[in-house]
Amino acid sequence: MSPERQSHVDLAGLTGDPDTNGPNAARMYDYYLGGSANFAVDRAAAEEQIATLPSVATTARANRAFLGRAVRLCLDLGVNQFLDLGSGVPTVGNVHEIAHQIDPTARIAYVDREPIAVAHARRLLRDEPRVSVTQADLTAPRTVLTAPGVTELLDFTRPVAVLAISVLHFVRDEQDPAAILATYRDACVSGSVLALSHTTIENLAPATVDRGLAIYQRTSTPVIPRPLSAAPALLTGYEVLEPGPVRVTAWRPDVDPDASEPVANTWAAFGILP
Ligand SMILES: C[S@@+](CC[C@H](N)C(=O)[O-])C[C@H]1O[C@@H](n2cnc3c(N)ncnc32)[C@H](O)[C@@H]1O
């Protein structure tokens, strides 16, 4: 990817501070995926991260591939309502694109707190009647669950898929990510889904970890990696489907050849509410 590439960030419709003085993790992720909703400061930090951990872009793609497999499995299971927490800057392969190819009646409520991700999403999705975009912090689940974009679109008397894909590593331990997920779980009926993926540092050299985490310390959302062993607490109450929490590339990889990319410092899991 070229660091000189121009961004096409459209600031129209922004609500809140776009946090452009320093790098932003959402926009760095957009850059890893080849998007253009990022600024020079984001690209510089992302390039630094790529130099530190070259697999970071591969991991981002593997994560998006998992997102696609999880959405397709939800639809196979008859779950066609999605609450996408930390949905990010819209790039190719968003939840509604995947879901609507299979079920045009699927409903998707996107939630992100990053103003540029939200402004982009609102502009791209303004003609999509079954999609909403809410600017909110997922760590305030009551606010999310009562937001008009969520209540007016999703029917919580039917199963809902809660997606927490590559986002919980921005939630600090003291914010209690398991308790936050439990609040979303308790709003859902039997047959609902929790699909999540999470950054880990298992198998990385300590010096690489230190340098990589230091780059994210310069953003407003430092990364808190968690090991695979953290998965069960986050999935409390859910029946975890095979193959259980595993490295993201190993989660049902035969469904999607993209998932065979070799390195990914992320684990993934998929649970159903009994
Ligand atoms: C790495 S991106 C993942 C995007 C998408 N879920 C995916 O997997 O492709 C993480 C996103 O989560 C958002 N995010 C981080 N913390 C959040 C929070 N507390 N509430 C809502 N969104 C959050 C960021 O703004 C960013 O857009």
Automatic annotation (TrEMBL):
Residue span of region Disordered: 1-21
Pfam families noted in UniProt: Methyltransf_19 (PF04672)
InterPro entries: SAM-dependent_MTases_sf (IPR029063), SAM_dep_MeTrfase_SAV2177_type (IPR006764)
Origin superkingdom: Bacteria
SUPFAM superfamilies referenced in this protein's UniProt entry, alphabetically: S-adenosyl-L-methionine-dependent methyltransferases
UniProt name for this protein: S-adenosyl methyltransferase
Organism annotation: Saccharopolyspora gloriosae
